[in-house]
Amino acid sequence: MINHFSVLGIKPNANEDDIKKAYKRLSNRFHPDKLLGASDDEKVQAEAQLQRVKNAYEVLSNPKLKSAFIKDFNNVIVTDPAAAMRELWDQFYS
């Protein structure tokens, strides 16, 4: 399960303004139009990261989706810690 808070780089107790600021900062950072000197691979990776940022914002900016996400996230039991660590690693270093 993707942690939308970590995708946006915010704490779980972040308010709506913090969520919006994080979204704007990251969407500007990963937007393909802003990557003028980037290679095709870098643009593809940035596009994938931008999609993660958009998904995280959609969930966290909607109060119903946010509360459902927090409820589900608190009930997650990690059955394969190595896979969970690989997922985290890939989110930040792929």
Automatic annotation (TrEMBL):
Domain of life of the organism encoding this protein: Bacteria
One Gene Ontology term, aspect cellular component: cytoplasm
InterPro entries named among the record's database cross-references: DnaJ_domain, J_dom_sf
Domain named J: residues: 3-93
Gene Ontology molecular function: any one: unfolded protein binding
SMART domains: DnaJ
Keywords: Chaperone
This protein's name: J domain-containing protein
Organism: Shewanella hanedai (Alteromonas hanedai)
Lineage: Bacteria, Pseudomonadati, Pseudomonadota, Gammaproteobacteria, Alteromonadales
